[in-house]
Design a protein that fits this description.
This protein folds into two domains: 95 residues; 237 residues, 2-Layer Sandwich (BirA Bifunctional Protein, domain 2). It has 13 helices and nine strands. It is elongated. 45% of the residues lie in helices and 18% in strands. A hairpin with a 2-residue loop joins strand 6 and strand 7.
């Protein structure tokens, strides 16, 4: 091909490159017009290469320069067009993904701790500051630990006080965290114990405003030489003052628990009437909050302790009950529903 034909072909290819509307069309032009089998590569440039082979020495330099000029021109034109199309593609993509910053943003609120866990953590902190250890145990428990080691043998009427979820004849969902106390004493027989056991417990209670089939309990146990009722009373007074304030008074009401002797229900003076009597406390001036007593000698003996040498006290409290009394919560089910409107009320408590 003559040089004029080659330049005409080059102009035609550049025009096709210019007409390409997107990268797909541009690549099609490249494959058809600049590929190895295209007219430009197989005829135009090949004819020039043949001329170089046969041309005199003085003309070879000029032909070589012309070939390089043609190739560089078409490749440069292609690359410029490619850059323009990619820039347009990026702009279109950015426009499609742009965010309208004039629209109102979404508000993100910091979560708040459930009041049940606020009380639980406060209780744990209180007792650990006094030197108590924190223990945990299995929620699926053996009857031996849940009842028998706690002075409640089979067919004992006291088992009716804790109607239970049995999995089989020997296995049940624990009805209290007292099995943790029994397991701890068995691991360290005739050794002083000062511990609390927080955790979930399960009983076949009716679900109503004040009861649930699942609830959280924290039990306390102290065993050592010379432990007496004065130690229990002093500990409970400090504990109740921590939860309800320093002006509250407590009193012991005789009761029955198979694992303690003597046993008491612990009542706290009513916050509404300050002991005078009102509807909330049913006219008594006091509200029951927990059960307590001195560890029964049978429990000490079955858990590996010399009951003539060691004595101890224990008490257990429902965390939900404390939270309901402290914050005036009217329905135990609110603790488990995760209603944000309910939880937001305790934002300030969480920051303390």
């Amino acid at each position: 091909m003559e040089r004029a034909e080659i330049l005409s072909l080059l102009a035609s290819i550049k025009e096709k490159i210019d007409v390409a509307k997107d990268m797909k069309e541009l690549i099609e032009v490249k494959n058809s017009e600049l590929g190895k089998k295209s007219k430009f590569m197989s005829e135009a440039l090949e004819s020039l290469n043949q001329l170089i082979r046969t041309a005199p020495v003085e003309e070879k330099k000029a032909l070589g320069a012309f070939i390089n000029e043609v190739k560089n021109d078409v490749l440069s034109h292609y690359e410029n067009k490619e850059r323009v199309l990619r820039e347009e593609q990026e702009k279109a993509s950015l426009l499609a993904e742009q965010i309208d910053i004039s629209l109102p943003g979404e508000n993100f609120y910091k979560g708040h701790k459930n009041p049940l866990y606020l009380i639980r953590d406060e209780i744990i902190s209180f007792f650990t500051d006094l030197g108590y250890d924190v223990y945990s145990g299995p929620e699926i428990e053996n009857d031996h630990y849940n009842f028998e080691l706690l002075n409640t043998p089979k067919d004992h009427p006291a088992r009716d006080m804790q109607d239970s979820f049995y999995i089989d004849e020997r296995t049940l969902l624990r009805t209290h965290t007292s099995p943790v106390q029994a397991r701890t004493m068995l691991k360290h027989p005739n050794t002083p114990v000062k511990m609390i056991a927080p955790g979930k417990t399960f009983r076949r209670d009716d679900d109503d405003l004040t009861h649930s089939h699942q609830f959280m309990q924290i039990e306390c146990l102290v065993v050592d030489e010379g432990i007496n009722l004065a130690h229990l009373k002093s500990t409970l007074e400090k504990f109740m003052h921590k939860i309800f304030g320093p002006k509250r008074t407590i009193k012991f009401v005789p009761s029955y628990f198979p694992f303690t002797e003597p046993s008491f229900e612990v009542n706290v003076s009513c916050a509404h009437c300050h002991g005078k009597g009102c509807n909330m406390c049913k006219g008594t001036g006091f509200i029951e909050v927990l059960g307590a007593g001195m560890v029964h000698p049978n429990v000490l003996r079955m858990c590996g302790y010399d009951e003539h040498r060691f004595s101890g006290f224990a008490f257990g409290v429902g965390v939900e009950r404390l939270a309901m009394l402290r914050y005036g919560i009217d329905d135990i089910r609110r603790f488990y529903q995760n209603d944000v409107r309910f939880l937001k009320q305790f934002q300030e408590e969480y920051r303390k």
